[in-house]
TrEMBL record:
GO molecular function: oxidoreductase activity
Alphabetized InterPro entries for the sequence: Amino_oxidase, FAD/NAD-bd_sf, Zeta_carotene_desat/Oxidored
Lineage start: Eukaryota, Viridiplantae, Streptophyta, Embryophyta, Tracheophyta
Annotated protein name in UniProt: Amine oxidase domain-containing protein
Pfam families referenced in this protein's UniProt entry, alphabetically: Amino_oxidase
SUPFAM superfamilies per UniProt: FAD/NAD(P)-binding domain (SSF51905)
Gene3D superfamilies, per the entry: 3.90.660.50, FAD/NAD(P)-binding domain (3.50.50.60)
Boundaries of every Amine oxidase domain copy: 6-202
Length: 214
């Protein structure tokens, strides 16, 4: 909080005061209030609370993209309030950590090793053509595009939401659980990783998100 109050480069004091007053209902109302804001976008909630649009432009475009890769006029305010509660209530809630190496080696490999240690199997480059079902609607097997059939006790189907909608068995599409997928829309994201051959001077070891609208 002290860091926010000291930062005069992004927001003016009147903007900070209006933003703080706007957040009071979320602080006082607790989790019940946070959950009730799911129907409002970040932009709608800010205007409803009398927070200047410049606060949204200067702060919440970047924060919205950091959380869900979309803009404040699309993101649910519930997501923002959950994050803000973490920042405000925990001593190190606003700190960010990074892997001490590349993700395949430092993140993915330990997960694979753990699954394998429990008798599981991880298959790469195995594209699913069809999810085949038993008569009771449970998964019978996965049919791969190369013709192989995968049988297992449990499956993890990692795919973008748009592909999942196409792969979903017809029997499942009318189930209430899966009908909620209709409201999910995929967000295209491009990450650019630049590796330098030396330490850059006068830089912060942070991940930066643009405040630009696109």
């Amino acid at each position: 909080i002290l860091a926010i109050l000291r930062n005069n480069e992004m927001l003016t004091w009147p903007e900070k005061v209006k933003f703080a007053i706007g957040l009071l209902p979320a602080i006082i109302g607790g989790q019940a209030y946070v959950e009730a804001q799911d129907g409002l976008t970040v932009q709608e909630w800010m205007r409803k609370q009398g927070v200047p649009d410049r606060v949204t432009t200067e702060v919440f475009i970047a924060m919205s993209k950091a959380l869900n890769f979309i803009n404040p006029d699309e993101l649910s305010m519930q997501c923002i309030l959950i994050a803000l509660n973490r920042f405000l209530q925990e001593k190190h809630g606003s700190k960010m950590a990074f892997l001490d190496g590349n993700p395949p080696e430092r993140l993915c490999l330990p997960i694979v090793e753990h699954i394998q240690s429990l008798g599981g199997e991880v298959r790469l480059n195995s594209r699913v053509q069809k999810i085949e079902l038993n008569d009771d609607g449970t998964v019978k097997n996965f049919l791969l595009t190369n013709g192989n059939v995968i049988d297992g006790d449990a499956y993890v189907f990692a795919t973008p939401v748009d592909i999942l909608k196409l792969q979903l068995p017809e029997n499942w599409k009318e189930m209430a659980y899966f009908k909620r997928l209709e409201k999910l829309v995929g967000v295209p994201v491009i990450n650019i990783h630049i590796w330098f051959d030396r330490k850059l001077k006068n830089t912060y070891d942070h991940l930066l998100f643009s405040r630009s609208a696109p």
